[in-house]
Amino acid sequence: MDPDKDSARGLAQLEGYLLWNAEVEEARRQAGRFTDALPWLTDAQREDVERAYTADRVAASRAMLCRISVRATELRGEYDARYRRLKARCVAAGVVLVSAVGGTCTAVTLLAR
Predict the structure, then answer these.
(1) Averaged pLDDT for residues 86-99
(2) What is the rounded CA–CA span in Å between residue 77 and residue 73?
(3) What is the pLDDT of residues 25-83, one digit of tens each?
(4) What is the rounded radius of gyration, in angstroms, for the C-alpha atoms of the chain?
(5) Could you give the C-alpha distances from 12 to 66, 69, 80, 93, 103, in angstroms and in order?
(6) What angle do CA 73, 76, 79 make, to 5 degrees?
(7) H-type helices in the chain, by residue range?
């Protein structure tokens, strides 16, 4: 086990937890602002509307995060494939260049004799 990787993973999890809690808290604040615009609601109705609004917003946020996660995974795959192709091209170009330089040096050496 690598302590640095464990620490990085733990920090990433903590960051995700804090970001998600901030999203939930923002949903609650927006629900409160929404119900503040409806002064005729009773306290029980206000709580029900806030709960439904918050649940809807949290569900929408979760769905958006899932879509982003799927797309990030797709992009990682695409970029990995592009990187492998680029790496192969660079290695091939290096081999061709070294071969050309070696051939030129051989030719110059043979002509100079």
Answers:
(1) 96
(2) 6
(3) 999 999 999 999 999 999 999 999 999 999 999 999 999 999 999 999 999 999 999 99
(4) 30
(5) 17, 14, 22, 39, 52
(6) 150
(7) 3-36, 43-112
